[in-house]
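Hi! If you just cloned this repository, the fastest way to understand the data is to look at a raw example. We've pasted two of them here, unedited. The first protein comes first, obviously.
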Amino acid sequence: MKNNIHGPNTINNTMSDNNIEYNDFGFTAMDADELASVDTKIVETTTTAKAVIDKLDNFIRPLLENLAKDSDKDYIYWPNRLDILTKKLKELDDIQKNIV
């Protein structure tokens, strides 16, 4: 078979003994009900992801804001940090367990 002048990826270059390589481009057709189902799942997933992001933001933002308050100081005084950190780690575990 002779190469087509349009380049190596043309249909003529994928033919061999009258066989054409089939590529469906990775999509399939769906009806309105199937589309509505997919749309619903996307909305549910997006809502769930936003809720998780909000929980994580509420979890970490106070720490970052407090660290930024006195950024000119070289040391951080943090009494009872083990109790506080243990509680926060439990909260983080709970956030992670509730991810759907």
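Ok, and the second one:
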Amino acid sequence: MAQGFATIQRNQQKKDSGYTTIFEKITSATGGKSQTFNWYRNTVTKIAESFKKDPSKIIRNERADSKGTEEEEDENILRKYPVSGHLYMFEYKAKMKYLPYYDAFPLVYVMKATPDEFWGANLHYLPPKKRILIIKKLFDGRIDIPKSCFHKYLTDQIDGYLLDLASSEWDTAILLPLENFVKNIKGGTSKFPYKKEDVWDETNETLYDRIKARRIIHGYGKQSDKNMVTSQW
């Protein structure tokens, strides 16, 4: 597994910059070298500890990072809306009426998007080692993901912006322990934690019922899209 994980690592050590995001901290810790799965898992877990109670801090830090010069920024970009073929992190407040539970801070590979909604695979529904296999296939241009990972998301239920993750950061993102599954009780408004291990067990029951397709990547057509968030802060 460690050797397989090394084959998808694309991080390159960068010069120290003024503001450091969680992704920059982890990249710096690699020393510019490929590391084993266990090294990544332990290092990412340690660095991410301060974000577990407030995962949205990652996006706030990225927003602060985007105010610096281009040389000081990491390669992640804040977006107002998603497009197909990209991997995003975002804070989400689902309508709970028909959901037994949901992930309040999903990590979603988007397959289809419209202005009002999008459909994609939340990789948090899989344990980290299985996420690695998904990412390796995506880099090879193939989608091969369990159906139970796929969900529809409403754009107006996103709290803030989406963090469009650079492909060089995917191997870090899939190991961040930031899945935040919650449920409500008897239709109430309060949310209660739902164990991620239970979610992974449920996904494993239908692991071989999968969606397979060729990966199609859509781009953001205008350069102004890159700056449309930072100009408002």
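That's it. A detail worth noticing about the second one: The CA atoms of residues 11 and 212 lie 27 Å apart.
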